[in-house]
Amino acid sequence: PGLGAGSVEALGAACRAAAMFSFGKKKTPAVDEAVPLPANAQLPADVTEHLLKDPRVRQSMQVAGANALADPAVQAQILSACKENFPQYAAAAKDQVGKWAHDPAVQAKAKHMAGKALEYAGNAGELVMKQIEQGPAGVRVLAFIASVASAGWAVMSLIDILGVLGHTILYLVAGYQLIFSLSTALFELKPEWIQMVEDKTALPISKYQDMLLENAKFLSWVGGRGMFYIFQGTLWLAFASFTDLINLPLGLFLAFVGVLHV
């Protein structure tokens, strides 16, 4: 059926209103649309502060030490953080970062940020030390040597792929011993040494140690670690003989270290 005159007129009015609304409305750019700024543009103070507060930038400044802003690695990390968080300022940052090394105000701010990171790291190490009961220095050295020796022998055993066929159980035990020895070694090291290794290797060592402190609390006690050293020693001794030049002395050494702890 055809439309009445009134209906046609109403439909036309609605179309004209929609067209006026569509053409009259101003288009706004997308929120995430970043307009690049000229290379000579100045970075806003809040952007500069945000970049210096970036955890990776603070860590690189902490490693670089004095005059960190002049370090190419620190500058590269700042540019990376800028591209990730403020892409519209990437070109401007590339021009400005080199000048920050000669800007006393930015240098002072950078030292403040790096100082906070160092203070946090120091406090974190102190908290870890409070949770771990430490034995005499000499015993700790012996324990670390025993752990490294056990880990080394475990690696050598695992490299021997044919050992799976002839000594399957020993091969499995070697895998366990590698994990056990590396875990106990962590508790004989100073926290700052662990942090240094973590920074250079990017391995989550501290998180692993925190997990051990939560789920294997006995490792934080001298006596608990002593019993664990004895246990590791007996695992090697289970495969030892009087003609064995490695399993026997290594097992006895670990057991001896365990007795010193207990």
Q: How is the topology of this model organized?
A:
Blueprint: H1 5-24, H2 45-53, H3 55-64, H4 72-85, H5 90-100, H6 104-131, H7 137-159, H8 163-166, H9 168-186, H10 191-201, H11 205-215, H12 222-237, H13 247-261
Helix pairs in contact: 2-6, 3-4, 3-6, 4-5, 7-9, 7-13, 9-12, 12-13
Describe this structure in words.
The protein is an all-alpha fold and 262 residues long. Helices cover 73% and strands 0% of the residues. The chain has helices spanning 5-24, 45-53, 55-64, 72-85, 90-100, 104-131, 137-159, 163-166, 168-186, 191-201, 205-215, 222-237, 247-261. The radius of gyration is 32 Å and the shape is elongated.
**Rg, alpha carbons:** 32 Å
Distance between the termini: 100 Å
Percent of residues in beta strands?
under 5%
Count of individual beta strands: 0
Q: Can you tell me the overall shape?
A: elongated
